[in-house]
Structures are given as structure tokens and as C-alpha cells.
């Protein structure tokens, strides 16, 4: 019964009362002197140890006395537990040594096994399954409240029951009804379809179009409705509203209408100011207005991340925002008569919608063959300059519209893509990797689609291309030691070691299966749909990538705050020392997933001989 | 060593040579001790009653909290205001307590012939003997280990000429042992056990 044992900590808080009682029942306490070996590698462990007071180091098997310092890779302090993996395996995998005098609670192996067999979430916690671990941490972590709040689903809370009127209902009757029910929006059922009528629609119909008030509302309704699923995150609904510039979305499950989500409700639900910035972008009439809006973005991301929003979702929002800013700037700078003939595309991480801090401009122009617009390059130069002033740094590789190389007619563009795809030169491969992640943000998207479709067609059955393209993903080694632990003690390049292999590998597979979406997470989902990847594999990769991005972002923000210029000079470096044990564990697991994925790429694209 | 007690123990050993409790009088040759603590209604052995008994086994450098005794007794008549203030055990807390006879059986079975460790352990032993002797015809024959003596023996060489502070809280602080649950029988027994293990296996504590 020692109540000195803290049950509030993970994973013990996952146990129910009866299981906690069993645990207390069987607990022992051990006392260890400084330098005493608590568990010797290869021995049979007594059980799982929980540090009550003191400090324990875990070190590698062959650690000799002299150079022991170098081989230690984890420290356990008060309330950390250790030896779970060893206990379950029945054989200690490492040496555990008391760094100072240490008192530990000892949970006998039998009890651990009993608990593992009766409580599955407790069991999961001990398994090295990254997804499960991350989910448990997420559900029970410190930021629980905020994260849950930001990750609320559409179906919970803010969804309103739709007010539905029949087809024959007149403008007058509808207006009266809306006034009675105090709503600003009704749905009209016409045949099997639903149309939406808002207060503004009614006003426009009567005042501007001078319709009679006896006109059926079915005639003025909008039938192209944007819908979301009740399980979608509310956050995504907000992103969709920002992207589509609308204020309401309908909630559909399969073909069944569930309700309506209104912008004002979402806004009152989120106390953050994301949509305020969105509105400011939308209303900007001058470059100055837009400038102010653009500068609010970094603060927004910071506040979202500090509130515990997953980087993945913050990324989606930022991508939507950046897209709107560029589109607006494009509108302001490109003459209206030219807009249908040019298409602005963003590429690389921007194109995938995977950047979290504003990063380099990676953009290009595709224009209609034979377009005569003599000021074009000049306008593009000032476009790039303007973006720089908004806080988007120039691209070091000069992949931006101020570089005539990246302003092409449709014909030239397809020609370029094609020559890159048969070239083995590193620069060409890189250009191609950037270009295939392209996404249109302004102008005429048909130009972009024509180029992309042509490119997909030309890749048909070109196995040599894919294997050459995939090769780059294996270029950087995964920072794991022979024993499967994190290699770098201090600093670690997370982009080379983790992010790039996943992004590029997934990109190659997506190209092979002609998947149109560019976002890596969505590509992973699409790969499962076409049967190119198992669901578990895809989820593991998504989870690993999400973790890399999250950890990178957190450190990025911290460093940017410390730097005087407010710029992080080493954006891809992770400082392992500043992470807690749980994060390092997760990171190690994530790298194992990357390693497995590289193996898979090797087999799939026949790169084994390397 | 108290001479009359030693003589009495020899006598009692002879008397129970072939009885059911003969094994209690065997010399102990294992490596375990039992840390034991009683909460009582007062400090005067003659008039006080036991209200709870806690004990844990200590084996080597481990305190086997999984093998323990945590006994609550039926509330005795002497359970009144003054002692309640110290141990914070009220009559209602003892509602499902067991009979004294049953408790003594459990203590004898749990302790066996192992040495008994405690803080001012003779008080606890005398308290138990007061009830054991009339029933069984002998007192606890086990060797007693006094924590404050163990502590004193180690400290005295470093504190020449001074008085050694043997208060419970001081010892635990000097040894840097967390007091787990002060004034519950089991909590004190565990703390004492930890202090003992610390003294026996750790470096001598700093004094000053």
C-alpha cells in the first residue's frame, strides 16, 4: 500500500482501481548505492523499476568502466520508470546503474505481465508502437485541454440543425420563417438535392434582381454546397471556409444531411484570431493592407502551437493563408485582362502545404503559349520583391518568378519537365522534385492542370525514371546506431534523417500511382486507397513525419525568439538535450519507421545493389 | 542486553521446546529482518492499547513492501482525544478492525524468528509482549535491532564529544530518506526499513 507510489503518472494512470490495488499490493522498494548496478545486461530482471528518489543511467551492453560516460544514453530521474522492455522480454537488454544513491519502487515482472494482459492501453504503452504511444500521450498529456479544444470535431457542439423548407416555399414565407427561428440560412430541398438560401441571397433577389416576393426560394438557392464530414476537425472546416471564402458549410455523413456549421459559431468556438487574419487578407485593397495581414501570420502560428495544436493542422491553415496572400497579391499586381492567361504555382513545401514558418518563395509562372505581354517579367520581379517585404525570404536556389527560368509558356514548361525527368544530373532531379509538388494558387489553374496531365502521361511505364528518382530518398543515413538507439547525442539534422526520406519516398510512390494531391499526409492516405501501401504502414509514416515536424517547429520557434533578428539560422537542427525522455523515445521510434520505409523503397524500386 | 530478559527468554525457550511455537526460539540464520511499528493510544506501556500494527520484511537492500502486515484493531477504550491528535486515527477509522487475538497470531506468523527492527523498538516489543505473554506464556524471543543505535554507532565516530540527535525526523533528514507516511504504523515501518537499508548499505551520512 505504500502511497508514496504516484499513480498519477503515465502509464500507471491508465490502470483502473482494481489494477492499481494489485500494483500497490505487490510493490517492493529497493535501495541502491552510487554506482551500484541495478540491472545487469543479460540478467533476468526482477521487474519494472520506478525511481522514487535518485538518478539512474541506462548504458550499452559492452560499456567498460573507463569509457562508460560515452555510452550512456538515457537518464531516469524521479518518477521515471525503466526496465519495462527488459522485464517483458525476461532478459535485461542494457545495464542500469545508479548514478547517485537511489531508491526505486520495484513492480515484479509477474505483476507487470498480469497488468499488461488485463489492460490493453497499459499494454500498448509498453509496446514500441509509435502510433499507440503518441496517441496515449496526446490523450493524457499536459496540454490535454487545449489540444482537445482545438481538435474538436465538427459533429460536436457547433453544428446547427438545418432548417429545411420545401421547394414551393416563397421568398416571403421563407423570410418570415427565418425571422421566427432567428436563423440566417435555410436549405431548400429540390428533388434529391439541397440548395442553400441565406439572408443576403433573399435581399439580393428582391432588391437587386427585383424578384416578386412570391417567387419560390428554390429558384434563387445555391446548389453547389461545400460539405464536411461530422468527424472532420472543426479546424478543417475553418480552413475550408478560408479557402473557399464562404461562411457556411453543410455537414454530410455519406448522403445524409446532418446540419450546418456557421462561421460565427466556429469563430466563437475558437478564440484564436485565425479567421480575423483571413478576413483582413480578403478585404485588403492595397499592398499596405496586405502587408499588415501577412505579418500577423507568424504570431498566429506561434499561438496555435503554444496552445498545443498539432503542427499538421497548423500547417494546413498556414498553407491556406499563404495561398490567399499570394492570390491576393497576384490580383493586385497582374492586370485583370492578363489573369486568365497566366497561372501562378507554388512548389516544394509550399506546394505540399507543409511549411509551418514562412519559408522560401518557391514559385513559378506558367502562361499560355504565344501570350504577348511585354511587361510580364517586370511585374514578376516586383511580385517577388513584394513577397520579400511581406516576410517571405527569397529562395536560395532562385526558384522564383523573378528568375526568367521559372516563367515559362505551357509548351516550354512541359519541355523542361520532360528533359529533367530523363536527366541524371542532381540539379535537374532536384528541380523535378520541387516541380512535381506544384499547386496552382492564382490565375488560371487550367494551364497548370494541362501541364501536369501531360507530365503524368509521359511518365507511363518508365521504371528507370522511378528507380532513379527514388534513389535520392536513401541518400542520407538514418541517425540510429547499430543497437537501434539515437546516434547523435547533441544535435541532429531532422530534415536529412527523417523528413526528407519520407517526403521524397512518398512523393515517388505518389507519382508512380498518379496521385494528384501534393500534401504528404494526403498522399499517404491516397496510397492506401489505391492499395499501394498498408493502412498501418501509412499511419506510422504519417505519425513519424508529424512528430518530426512538431519537434522541429517547437525548437524553431524557441530559437527564433532567442535570436535577435527573430530568424532561426539552423531550422532543421534538433537539440536532443532539450527534449525529455518520452520525446526522445518517440523520436527513436520514428527513425525506426523511416529506416523500415527506406528498406521498402529499396526493395520496391530495386535499389538493393547499392 | 538486558540480563533479566535474557534469563527469562532462556526459561521460556525451555518451556516451549516441544510446543507449536518452538520454531520462534530457533536462532535465525537468514538474511531478513522485520521492520515493525505499532500505533498506540499512549506512551505508557501499562495503560496504552495498540490500535494498529505495521510491518515489512527487509531482505538485503530491498524493502519488501509486497510482504507486509497492515493490521487495524478494534477500537480500544483508551482511544481518546490526546493520542488521536498525534496519529489521527479515530474510532470510526477502526470500525472494521480485527480482534487482538487474531492480530497477535498474524504478527507471530509474519515475524517468525527474524530480528525485529524499529525506532525505539523496545517500546513496540514490550507493547506486544504485554498481550502476547498472558496468552502464549512467552514474550517475543526475537533479536531486536534499534535503528537509533545503528545510526548512533555510525555517527558517533564523526561527532566526538557531541550529543547525537536521534530524533526520527532528524535521522531521516540526515539520511535523505523521504518520510513516506508519518504516524501510520506501516508508513513508519517502511521509513525505518529504508533508513536501516540506507545505513547498512550506503556511505555513512554527512554530519554537521
Describe this structure in words.
The complex is a heterodimer of chains A (610) and B (208). With 610 residues, chain A is of the alpha+beta class. Among the domains of chain A are: 2-127, Sandwich (Jelly Rolls); 154-269, Roll (CBS-domain), CATH 3.10.580.10; 460-610. In chain A, 48% of the residues lie in helices and 15% in strands. A four-stranded antiparallel sheet of chain A has the order 1-8-3-6. Chain A has a four-stranded antiparallel sheet with strand order 2-7-4-5. A four-stranded mixed sheet of chain A has the order 17-16-15-18, with helices on both faces. In chain A, helix 22 (494-512) packs across helix 23 (520-529). Chain B is α/β, with parallel strands linked by helices. Chain B has seven helices and five strands, in the order αβββααβαβααα. In chain B, helix 5 (147-155) runs parallel beside helix 7 (185-201). Chains A and B meet through strand 1 and strand 8 of A and strand 3 and helix 7 of B. Strand 1 (28-32) of chain A pairs antiparallel with strand 3 (62-72) of chain B.
Amino acid at each position: 500500500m505504500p502511497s508514496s507510489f504516484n499513480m498519477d503518472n503515465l502509464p500507471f494512470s491508465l490502470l483502473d482501481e482494481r489494477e492499481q490495488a494489485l500494483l500497490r499490493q505487490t510493490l517492493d522498494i529497493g535501495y541502491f548505492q552510487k554506482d551500484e548496478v541495478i540491472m545487469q545486461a543479460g540478467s533476468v530482471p526482477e521487474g519494472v523499476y520506478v525511481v522514487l528518489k535518485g538518478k539512474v543511467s541506462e548504458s550499452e551492453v559492452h560499456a567498460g568502466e573507463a569509457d562508460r560516460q560515452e555510452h550512456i544514453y538515457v537518464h531516469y530521474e524521479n518518477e521515471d520508470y525503466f526496465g519495462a522492455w527488459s522485464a517483458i522480454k525476461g532478459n535485461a537488454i542494457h545495464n542500469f546503474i545508479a548514478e547517485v544513491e537511489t531508491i526505486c519502487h520495484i513492480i515484479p515482472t509477474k505483476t507487470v505481465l498480469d497488468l499488461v494482459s488485463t489492460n490493453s492501453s497499459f499494454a500498448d504503452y509498453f509496446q514500441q508502437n509509435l502510433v499507440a504511444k503518441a496517441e496515449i500521450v496526446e490523450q493524457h498529456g499536459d496540454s490535454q485541454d487545449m489540444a482537445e479544444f482545438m481538435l474538436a470535431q465538427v459533429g460536436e457542439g457547433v453544428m446547427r440543425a438545418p432548417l429545411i423548407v420545401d421547394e414551393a416555399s416563397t421568398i416571403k414565407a421563407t423570410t418570415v420563417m427565418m425571422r421566427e427561428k432567428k436563423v440566417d440560412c435555410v436549405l431548400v430541398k429540390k428533388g434529391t438535392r439541397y440548395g442553400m438560401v441565406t439572408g443576403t441571397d433573399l435581399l439580393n433577389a428582391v432588391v437587386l434582381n427585383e424578384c416578386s416576393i412570391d417567387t419560390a426560394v428554390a429558384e434563387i438557392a445555391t446548389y453547389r454546397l461545400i460539405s464536411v464530414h461530422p468527424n472532420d476537425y472543426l479546424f478543417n472546416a475553418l480552413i475550408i471556409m478560408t479557402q473557399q471564402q464562404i461562411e457556411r458549410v453543410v455537414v454530410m455523413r455519406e448522403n445524409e444531411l446532418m446540419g450546418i456549421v456557421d462561421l460565427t459559431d466556429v469563430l466563437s468556438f475558437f478564440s484564436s484570431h485565425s479567421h480575423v487574419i483571413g478576413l483582413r487578407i480578403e478585404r485588403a485593397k492595397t499592398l499596405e493592407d496586405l502587408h499588415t495581414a501577412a505579418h500577423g501570420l507568424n504570431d498566429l502560428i506561434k499561438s496555435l502551437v503554444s496552445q498545443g495544436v498539432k503542427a499538421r493542422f497548423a500547417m494546413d491553415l498556414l498553407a491556406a493563408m499563404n495561398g490567399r496572400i499570394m492570390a491576393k497579391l497576384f490580383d493586385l499586381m497582374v492586370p485583370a485582362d492578363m489573369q486568365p492567361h497566366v497561372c501562378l504555382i507554388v512548389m516544394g513545401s509550399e506546394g505540399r502545404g507543409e511549411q509551418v514558418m514562412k519559408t522560401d518563395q518557391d514559385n513559378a509562372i506558367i502562361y499560355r503559349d504565344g501570350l504577348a505581354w511585354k511587361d510580364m517579367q517586370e511585374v514578376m520581379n516586383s511580385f517577388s520583391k513584394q513577397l520579400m517585404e511581406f516576410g517571405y525570404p527569397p529562395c536560395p536556389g532562385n526558384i522564383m518568378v523573378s528568375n526568367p527560368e521559372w516563367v515559362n509558356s505551357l509548351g516550354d514548361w512541359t519541355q523542361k519537365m520532360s528533359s529533367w525527368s530523363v536527366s541524371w544530373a542532381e540539379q535537374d532531379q532536384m528541380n523535378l522534385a520541387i516541380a512535381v509538388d506544384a499547386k496552382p494558387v492564382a490565375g488560371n489553374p487550367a494551364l497548370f492542370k494541362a501541364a501536369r496531365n501531360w507530365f503524368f502521361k509521359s511518365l507511363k511505364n518508365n521504371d528507370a525514371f522511378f528507380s532513379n528518382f527514388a534513389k535520392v530518398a536513401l541518400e542520407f543515413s538514418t541517425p540510429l546506431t547499430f543497437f537501434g538507439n539515437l546516434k547523435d547525442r547533441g544535435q541532429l539534422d531532422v530534415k536529412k534523417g527523417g523528413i526528407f526520406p519520407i517526403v521524397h519516398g512518398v512523393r515517388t510512390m505518389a507519382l508512380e500511382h498518379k496521385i494528384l494531391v501534393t500534401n504528404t499526409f494526403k498522399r499517404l492516405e491516397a496510397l492506401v486507397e489505391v492499395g499501394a501501401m498498408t493502412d498501418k504502414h501509412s499511419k506510422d509514416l504519417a505519425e513519424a513525419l508529424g512528430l518530426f515536424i512538431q519537434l522541429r517547429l517547437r525548437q524553431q520557434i524557441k530559437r527564433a525568439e532567442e535570436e535577435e533578428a527573430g530568424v532561426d539560422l539552423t531550422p532543421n537542427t534538433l537539440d536532443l538535450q532539450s527534449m525529455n525522455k518520452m520525446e526522445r523515445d518517440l523520436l527513436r521510434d520514428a527513425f525506426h519507421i523511416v529506416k523500415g520505409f527506406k528498406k521498402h523503397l529499396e526493395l520496391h524500386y530495386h535499389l538493393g545493389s547499392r | 542486553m538486558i540480563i533479566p530478559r535474557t534469563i527469562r527468554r532462556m526459561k521460556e525457550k525451555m518451556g516451549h521446546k516441544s510446543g507449536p511455537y518452538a520454531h520462534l526460539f530457533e536462532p535465525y540464520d537468514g538474511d531478513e529482518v522485520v521492520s515493525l511499528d505499532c500505533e498506540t493510544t499512549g506512551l505508557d506501556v501499562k495503560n496504552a492499547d495498540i490500535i494498529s500494527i505495521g510491518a515489512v520484511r527487509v531482505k538485503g537492500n530491498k524493502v519488501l513492501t509486497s510482504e507486509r502486515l497492515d493490521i487495524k484493531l478494534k477500537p480500544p477504550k483508551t482511544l481518546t482525544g490526546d493520542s488521536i491528535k498525534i496519529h489521527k486515527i479515530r474510532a470510526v477509522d477502526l470500525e472494521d478492525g480485527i480482534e487482538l487475538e487474531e492480530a497477535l497470531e498474524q504478527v507471530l506468523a509474519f515475524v517468525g524468528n527474524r530480528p525485529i527492527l524499529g525506532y525505539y523498538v523496545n517500546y513496540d516489543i514490550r507493547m506486544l509482549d504485554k498481550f502476547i505473554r498472558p496468552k502464549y506464556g512467552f514474550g517475543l524471543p526475537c533479536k531486536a535491532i534499534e535503528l537509533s543505535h545503528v545510526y548512533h554507532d555510525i555517527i558517533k565516530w564523526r561527532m566526538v564529544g557531541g550529543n547525537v540527535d536521534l530524533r526520527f525526523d532528524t535521522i531521516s533528514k540526515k539520511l535523505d530518506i523521504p518520510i513516506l507516511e508519518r504516524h501510520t504504523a506501516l508508513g513508519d515501518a517502511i521509513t525505518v526499513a529504508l533508513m536501516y537499508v540506507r545505513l547498512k548499505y550506503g556511505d555513512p551520512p554527512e554530519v554537521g
